[in-house]
Amino acid sequence: MKQYLSLFGLLWLLSACTPNSHVEFDPKQGDRVDYWVQTKANIDIGGRVFTQYSNSLMHYEVIETSPTLKLELVPKFMTMSGGGNSFSSFTAANDEPELQQMFSSGFEITLDKDSGKLLAFKGKDEESWQKMLARSGPELIEHLTQGMETPGVLQKIPAKEGSKLILEGFNGQQTELLVTKVTPEIVDAELTAESGDSRLYGHMRLARESGWLQKMVLVLESKIDAMGQQGNNHIQIVMSRKDLLDQVGDLRQQIAFDDMDNWNPIMASPPKPADGLELSAESLFQYGKGTFRGESEHLQLELLLTEVDREVLGEIRYRDLQALDAEDKPIAMEWSILSQLGPYRESGALVTSTAIVPLGWD
After folding, report:
1. pLDDT digit string, tens, across residues 320-355
2. Beta carbons within 10 angstroms of residue 238's beta carbon
3. What would the DSSP string read from start to end of 262-327?
4. Local structure of 245: helix, strand or coil
5. Is 73 exposed, middle or buried (0-12, 13-18, 19+ CB in 10 A)?
6. Which candidate, 337, 335, 158, places its Cα nearest to that of 246?
7. Of the candidates 307, 361, 297, which has an alpha carbon nearest to the alpha carbon of residue 103?
8. Close Cβ partners of 297 (under 8 Å, ≥ 6 residues apart)
9. What is the DSSP letter of 252?
């Protein structure tokens, strides 16, 4: 009997330690993940190029897993610009109340559980959604879904380098997936599709165990008709899990398209100054206050650290930001860091400059 039990225990241990032979996105009801999503669109019409940008922090929540997969998507932060116009959750309540109402309520996306094909996409606030549909037509759904990608691949992906798979419903196209790298933690894949006047290519990285998307760069190219002329549309989408980033910055500058391992930190510097001296916390943080100013889409924080007479190498990262009212009482508000610069010397002092944004639409 002991021999049988030992054999059973060994088999159980081996099965627990051996990675799955495939990767499957199998989310559970209530799962929640935040992603930073950045897009850049170049629209060329008759030689005139129009450029549009967007940057958003998308909150995904799984609300149903059977018979279809339903996800709730709420932009916690969003900026869009192009054609001389701009929009931001930072100022939306005053400038664009209808857009504020639609985006702050979020969206519901329904997917075929087996193929990942998009079955339905709608805004959760019916009144504002219908107004925007009447104004923009079905192109609104196409435009929105390009910046709200599904955070996983619903079809099973072989965890073997060189494996190929046809994705039936990826971004509305039949897309070939080629597995390029496999480790116990991640699976990297290359994506390609071509149909008529449109094509798609990109890279993605998935968590080996859960199948959740970690990061992705995707390029969409298509022919379009606009203003009575034919044109070309080139869209680049970059997506990364929020918990994998210390700061956001421009995600396009953090990725080398041919190698997913080149997602380097925005700032990288030696851990110690060149002379080997290390500053203590007491000598570095001599001042307890800084200043901030309001920009069009964020707040800029500047903090004076200490007075120095030499260059200082290293970096400072801020976390767990907390806003206080005039009586120094905490304000219930969530923040995210867009970028951090410094420490650097300015007028004989060591300072840092940090761009932050409040999350939410109020």
Report:
1. 888 888 888 888 888 888 888 878 888 778 888 888
2. 22
3. G---S----SS-TT-----HHHH-----EEEEE-SSSEEEEEEEEE-SS---------S---B-TT
4. coil
5. buried
6. 337
7. 361
8. 79, 86, 88, 90, 91, 357
9. G
Specify the DSSP class assigned to residue 20: P
Measure the CA–CA gap between 362 and 360, rounded to whole angstroms.
Answer: 6
Can you say whether the dihedral through the CA atoms of 7, 9, 10, 14 is positive or negative? positive
Give the integer Cα–Cα distance in Å for 311 and 272. Answer: 11
pLDDT band for 358, please (50, 70, 90 cuts). Answer: confident
d(CA 76, CA 344): 31
Rounded-to-integer distance, Cα 108 and Cα 72, Å: 5
* Entry field: residues in the chain: 362
275-333 tens-digit pLDDT: 556 767 777 777 767 788 877 678 888 888 887 766 677 777 777 888 888 888 888 88
The SS3 assignment for 184 reads coil
**Residue 200 near residue 192, CB atoms below 8 Å:** yes
Secondary structure class of 74 (helix, strand, coil): strand
- 355 neighbors 298 (Cβ within 8 angstroms): yes
Contact of 287 with 304, CB cutoff 8 Å: yes
Residue type, 189: A
| CA diameter of the chain | 81
Collect all residues with Cβ–Cβ distance below 8 Å to 23 and sequence separation of at least 6: 153, 156, 157, 159, 187, 206, 208, 211
**DSSP string for 135-147:** HHTTHHHHHHHHT
| 152 touches 189 (CB < 8 A) | no
Strand pairing class (22-23; 157-158)? antiparallel
Q: Taking CA 11 as the corner, what is the angle to CA 9 and CA 14, rounded to the nearest 5 degrees?
A: 110
Residue pair 236/39 in contact by the 8 Å Cβ criterion: yes
In order of 82, 84, 121, 136, 324, the CA distances from 91 in angstroms are 17, 17, 26, 22, 20
CA proximity to 70, closest of 61, 78, 58, 79: 61
Instruction: Show the CA angle centred on residue 150, arms to residues 148 and 152, nearest 5°.
Output: 150
What is the C-alpha to C-alpha distance for residues 149 and 147, in angstroms, rounded to an integer?
6
- Of the chain, the end-to-end C-alpha distance in Å amounts to 66
